[in-house]
Amino acid sequence: MLRDITFGQYYDCDSVVHRTDPRAKIVLLILIIVFIFLAKNIFALLFCTACVFAIIFVSRVPIKLYIKNLKAILPILIFTAVINMFYGDGGTVLVQLWRLSITTAGIYKAFYMALRIILLIFVSSALTYTTTPNDLTDAIERLLSPLKFIGLKNAVHTLAMMMTIALRFIPTLVEETEKIMNAQKARGADLENGNLKQRVKALVPILIPLLISSIRRAYELAEAMECRCYCGGEGRQRMKQLKLRPADYAVCGVTVCCCAAVILLNIFL
User: Fold this and answer.
1) Nearest to 41, CA basis, from 254, 264, 265
2) Residue 51: how many other CB atoms lie within 10 Å
3) Nearest to 85 by CA among 100, 60, 65, 102
4) Is the per-residue pLDDT at 1 higher than 90?
5) Residues of 191-221 as b/e, b for ≥16 C-beta within 10 angstroms?
6) pTM of whole model > 0.85?
7) Tens-place pLDDT, residues 25-43
8) In Å, how far from its chain's centre is CA 86?
């Protein structure tokens, strides 16, 4: 299961999505997520699905990487779908379980919610697969630059750096967790059998080494930054300057048109 978590990894290839300005990608990601949740009918949601899969195709990132991220949250996805089955209003009753009933409206609602979560995972993964951590840092800092005018000048760069480091170390922590679990299994630890209480106790030998390793890694990173005379964003210059190109405006225009289409589908269908 841990090997299926690829969120936060960068996939190096040449595509339109990779070449798009990271600031535009972050803004468009937020816009797409908003309109995925604003889709009120199945036609609008299916149109959002087509748009997300078009992004995946254009990004040239293998679809199996997106599916791996989906496999990692499969239990949450199933749980959400099952819960929503019992909260559908109207429709034909299919199964009656005491006071709870599964109706056609509940099935529709469960499918609707599950598809929304899948699209959310896919489009969020597209950002991290096509954007390097350095570009993410620069983009977040530039987008938050207006906060400098209200006395948060140093906090902007610090916040951007913290968010990027967190994304960068997700794959590292996953790999470290897998190594610790394999080491504990080699020592005879049973991590898969037993009741809930026993499984929780079995996680203690994993969480403690993982916490110690994370703290040690944080100290090493801090020392490396100090050795390189890192002192925050004050007076720092960037080797790669972010600049919007005509292709970036074209991508933004296509995305806005797709969002407008979702609004029209909500109104007329």
Assistant:
1) 265
2) 21
3) 102
4) no
5) eeeeeeeeeeebeebbeebbeebeeeeeeee
6) no
7) 999 999 999 999 898 888 9
8) 28
